[in-house]
Amino acid sequence: MNSFAEIIATIKKYDRIIILRHQNPDPDALGSQTGLATAIRQAFPQKKVLIGGNDTEGLKWLSSAQKVSDEDYQDALVIVVDTANQPRIDDQRFDDGAFLIKIDHHPNDDVFGDQLFVNTDASSCSEIIADLIDSSDDLQLTKKVAYYLYAGIVGDTGRFLYPSTTEHTMRVAGKFIALGVDTAAINNKMNEVSLKQAKLQGFIYDILQIDKSGAALAIIDHDLMNKLNLNQEEANSVVSTPGRLKEISAWVEAVQKDDGTFRMHLRSQGPIINELAKEHDGGGHPLASGATAKDLDEVKQMFEELIKIVTDFNQKGE
Question: Where in this chain does the record put each DHHA1 domain (predicted)?
Fold first, then answer.
């Protein structure tokens, strides 16, 4: 594990820096990526700092990616944020640069990079970036930087509702507020849903399968998405909906992709579910993970495995 000082020293060495994050980025991926890029640009205006990856339509209000050429990678420093494993990096040229840094808060199951800083106790990667900036005499936490990092923290803490929220998380967020970040505007934007997405939230309760253990499953297939005129990105946005029901302690949402496979969103109020995700081509946090199922049979298999996890958790009285 490297120190913040070592990472800052590496950043200062390179004239071209490319910052990447995971595929299908969420607010924390975009916030930590763009917050770090903005801080570096402000401190070192002579450096070329690029934000790579593919855009997420529903989050373009927060950040948009830039075009990064093969030539840009030559002799460049590449920093990957908020990404636990290499297959999920949203540009598989990530190893084409001269030096690679990993900064993350997920379990460090895939150790990659020439330097890395991983803190699984942090609420978000955005919180780590705030601490990195705070440790430096060169990088500065400005209102513009704080805007991105606040969105990232809010996204990964579920508006400060998740157990990952700590006293330190609140202190960091307090610094953003002191800088004048319009937190209400960010919160309102992140709460915003389209009419189609609101209708899908209603359908979720109708199609939700709830086991007596407290495990639940919702399958959002092509037929339902076509019925509501939703794309996959819009369907992914309702992952937190089942968590509002008191009868549910852990759940999985299966969203069918264009190739017929399913993106599996696992969430929990207590039972640990990231080991289940790892067994199905995924991973993530103990209470929030993602995986892939090749077909409905694997979806059902994962649900049965989730039921066992929740049942064991209940029997232990945890």
Answer: 227-310
